[in-house]
Amino acid sequence: MLGLFSAKSNHPLADAREARRVFEELSTREAAAALDEVAGWLESVAADELFKLSERLALVFQLDEAAQNHARKLGRDYLTSPRLGRQQEFKLWQANHDFWAQLADAYHACLTRFRSQEKGSEAIKADLPRLIVRLLRACSAQLEWDQFRYGPINVGLWQRMGQAYLQAEQGKFARQALAPYANVPGESTVESEYLKALVFQASSMDSLLPLEIEIAERLIGHFLPHFVFTAEVRPDNVYWVDADKPAPPRRLAVLPQISPSLRFFSTGAALARLETLQRQVEGGEVPAEVNLGAQYSARIVLPVIRHLAMYWAPKPPMRSHDRHRVKSRLTVVNGLANVHARLSQKGGEESEAWVVDDVSLGGMGAQVPLTASDWVRIGALVGMQPEGGSNWLIGVIRRFSRETPVQGSVGIETLSKSPQAIAGDLGGMDCNAILLDTLHTGDTVRVILPNAAFEPAIPLVFAWQGRSARLDPVEQLESGVDFDLGLYRVAPPV
Question: How many CB atoms lie within 10 A of CB 344?
């Protein structure tokens, strides 16, 4: 294939021998360096106007194939590497995200040239199904990596994917099965790749952690054949999308304007099968036939299944409490150490000012200036002081989305409106903790502890109102960014 390239181009990859050397070296490079190099080659190939379209697409195909193993490894590193610093994490995220974005751009550029009937377009007509399947996979990967950082999502991706799908439908190959990569088992279609991206977006990932988002994406792929995708207006439709518009899918609670490019989808039999899987996983085992890309415990997978079941249901999830629109300022401090210091009136790090959008009995939504808040993430512990008040509330960020690179939106669950800082002894070790509930002998109370401090057999002992109080561990309820949330039973006073 490489021998067909025109001698008019001076691009290194236009020379068969040099191209062979480049691809051989790519296979031995470290993953991050390889992806960076492939992204550079994709950009330079796109900029060289002397390539014929068939030559250009052949190179994009080969660069894509050369990068796949590296992309899988680097993606796994991002999701599973313990204790990455914020700069390390962002650098790893950027390497992955930028590769998929560059690859999607390269495929989109080839498809655009074909649509414009560039000279030689007929030469790639047979490759269109594979081109569009790979384009949709690259766009979906870009969408997933955007979601790992909770946005902002480029709405233009939806129009790019939708128009590619419509072209395949017009060409009558949207449901043509093919192997996207020769060395990777499994077949796909243009329609299933497009539908998978739509279901991913409809599953509301802004309350899941990155690893949970990856597991959700795998589960969507597993159950995708049971979804229903149609152009027909049917009573069982749940979501709709206008494939020709730069807009994500939406629930039918918002009625669409009739258009030839309107498409609908529903969970079909997927929800019932997901609920069957939920019962199996609640029994403590993840079936081997469900490929999640790695082995995960039932404890990790079960919350993701429950999340998907909620958003795949015909009726949207209902809030536990009514929300009321407000506009007020909120003083916020981050992390157990700073919250404990504020409750103990010992200072702590500088606070931030957020703007509350809505409040309910269970929590609040707020706007966050991200330039000062790089620590904001799902599972982060926050201390909150409403404007004009002197009391502190304790909450955990449950939902997060980046509206712009400098502005975010968070949903916070309030854990306590009357927290107390305590300094205790945990098996002979000093332990600064936060008591969330009132102490009554025999009752259970929730306590926030430093990360990994909860021990099933070790009581927490501390001074309380002139006496020694002891809390006996019952169970660990949660583990957050820098804390454990434990449930304890109050022992009789000594």
Answer: 15
What kind and span of H or E run contains 353?
strand 352-359
Same domain, residue pair 401 and 427: no
Cβ atoms 164, 111 nearer than 8 A:
yes
DSSP structure string for 88-112: HHHHHHHHHHHHHHHHHHHHHHHHH
Alpha helices in 14-116, H assignment, sequence order: 16-26, 31-47, 53-80, 86-115
Domain residue limits at 357: 324-416
Judgement on whether residues 329 and 197 belong to the same structural domain of the protein: no
Position 235 in a domain? no
Name, in order, each residue with C-beta under 8 angstroms of 298's C-beta and a sequence gap of 6 or more. Answer: 281, 282, 283, 284, 285, 286
Do 350 and 471 sit in the same domain of this protein? no
- pTM for the whole thing? 0.87
pLDDT tens, 439-449?
A: 999 999 999 99
Number of helices (H), then strands (E), in the chain = 11, 16
Closest CA to 202 of 249, 246, 154: 249
Burial tier of 328 (Cβ tally within 10 Å: 0-12, 13-18, 19+): middle
The answer to whether residues 362 and 463 belong to one domain is: no
In the chain, how many domains are there? 3
Same domain, 13 and 133: yes
Residue 459: asked if its preceding bond is cis (omega within 30°), the reply is no
* DSSP conformation class of 178: B
Spatial distance between the Cα atoms of 472 and 243, rounded to a whole number of angstroms? 57
pLDDT digits (tens, 9 = 90+) for 25-68: 998 999 999 999 999 999 999 999 999 999 999 999 999 999 99
250 within domain boundaries: no
User: Where is the domain boundary, 416, 434, 452?
Assistant: 416
DSSP states of 112-137: HHHHTT-TTGGGGGGGHHHHHHHHHH
The 10 Å Cβ neighbour count of residue 203 is: 19
Q: Which residues contact 82 (CB under 8 A, 6 or more apart)?
A: none
Indicate whether 386 and 445 sit together in one domain.
no
Pairing type for strands 393-404 and 352-359 reads unpaired
Report the C-alpha gap between 48 and 121 in whole angstroms. Answer: 17
**Beta bridge mates, 263:** 241
